[in-house]
């Protein structure tokens, strides 16, 4: 499944309503989405090894199998539904990981809007993401 197909599937599943939060080494995924997070992360790593070179969510950095330049955080984007079966998980590079969660979520939200995925008002951004 390529990047575009996964976004289309994601958009269908969440119907424009989703939540976002940043996972960092000292800020793990919450227990209720840990299994989905692990699966999404595994898929992300597979893409790296398939040389798909996914981009950082906030800049043009391309991730490769080089651990030195690997992501320092991940952005979780998932449908705001309890039975969510899908999750989009872009990486955040070393440089961008220095930005706050709120800044990163705002950058991602702007991109999603431009892609026509975020088409509903999510309300104010909370410290841990949007709801
Ligand atoms: Zn970056």
Secondary structure layout:
Elements: H1 3-14, E1 18-23, H2 34-49, E2 73-79, E3 91-92, H3 101-114
Antiparallel strand pairs: 1-2, 2-3
This protein binds zinc ion.
Short overview:
The chain is 32% helix and 11% strand. The protein has helices at 3-14, 34-49, 101-114, and strands at residues 18-23, 73-79, 91-92.
Fold and architecture overview:
This protein is an alpha+beta fold. It has one domain. Helix content is 32%, strand content 11%. It has helices at 3-14, 34-49, 101-114; strands at residues 18-23, 73-79, 91-92. The chain has a three-stranded antiparallel sheet. Mean pLDDT is 83; it is low at 121-131. Bound molecules: zinc ion.
Low-confidence stretches: 121-131
Overall, the morphology is globular
**Per DSSP, what share of the residues sits in E-state strands of 2 or more residues?**
5-15%
State the helicity in percent bands: 25-40%
Q: In the residues, how many domains can be counted?
A: 1
Give the overall pLDDT as a whole number.
Answer: 83
Ligands bound, unique? zinc ion
Order of helices and strands: HEHEEH
Tell me the total number of β-strands.
3
What's the number of helices?
3
Radius of gyration: 14 Å
Please state the structural category. alpha+beta
